[in-house]
Amino acid sequence: MGMDLALTEEQRLIVDMVRRFVREEIVPLEAKLDPDADELPLEEFNRLVAMVKEMGLYGLDTPPEWGGPEINLLTRCLIAIECGQHRAGLYAPCYYVFGGARQAQLFEATDEQKEQYLYPMLRGEKKTFFALSEPSGGSDPARAIQTRAVRDGDHWVLSGTKLWISGADRADYGLLFARTGGPGRGGVTAFIIETGWDGFNVRRAVHTLRSAKYATEIELKDLRVPHENMLGEEGGGFSIANDRLMRQRIPYAAECIGIAVKANEMAVEYAKVRETFGAPLSERQGIQWMLVENEIDIRAMKWL
To answer: What GO annotations for molecular function exist for this entry (predicted)?
Structure first.
């Protein structure tokens, strides 16, 4: 008996609903914004958030028991594909009006940590960041992390540098990984740190492809972190980081498919109207081949 890979009726309805939302709400609104904008005016943001809540899709990465929608990973990826199909889709999909949980690891935090950090984040009262990468390497905790955390009584003293960290200059707190033991995965521990503490410094903005969307470099100089702000167990930081990377990188990859879908759609439309030597590009066999190959690649990525 073959495997049924068809979408369910519910999934088709969700895809259609999100697609219409992007095309009827996000795209027209985006046309009025600066090309590099990654945020909506507050009034428009609140209006669209209310619409998403009415759709029952607010808080896509929030577990259902904490108020998130009852969707599986495939449905989450289908939504991500649609949310990526606009100008800022790669860096600010739907300008974050679908909510989410940037620090999903905090659902496993202690009750005290949840009260101080998780719940304010879910209510939109506090902004966060995730600090894993360093100048010595990217998402490779087993080898690249050189930031050190040394126990000093009821505190840990952190020193080091983090790089490519999004939103640290606008955040209230963040989840940061430091080495508390020897080399390898077992030597990394996760800490919740507040940006207002002495010893925390955003050294510079790191611009990439878009002027308005940038990362930061963080410098830690003898930053004292209370022991109760350690997330999980000492040496358990790799599993915490891996949990985020595994669960949230997959929808991010789906957003990239959405970008490809929109780019190819734009290319097809342009080929129909751009003429060379008395005929539109769409009638040139070489152009047709490229567009067809694009479509084949996109369909293959969706099956993956």
So the answer is: acyl-CoA dehydrogenase activity; flavin adenine dinucleotide binding
| Residue range 19-48: mean pLDDT, rounded | 91
Name 280's bridge partners: 275
Please enumerate in sequence order all residues whose Cβ is within 8 A of that of 168, keeping only pairs 6 or more positions apart, or say none. Answer: 129, 131, 162, 174, 195, 202, 216, 218
CATH of 9-104, one of 3.40.50, 1.10.540, 2.40.50, 1.10.150: 1.10.540
In angstroms, rounded to a whole number, what is the distance separating the alpha carbons of residues 140 and 145? 7
Residue 191's φ and ψ, nearest 5 degrees, are -130, 145
Torsion of CA 252, 68, 26, 37, to 10 degrees: -60
pLDDT digits (tens, 9 = 90+) for 106-151: 887 999 999 999 988 887 788 899 998 998 876 566 678 999 999 9
* DSSP conformation class of 181: S
**Pairing, β 214-226 against β 155-166:** antiparallel
User: What residues contact 194, with CB distance under 8 A and at least 6 apart?
Assistant: 172, 173, 200
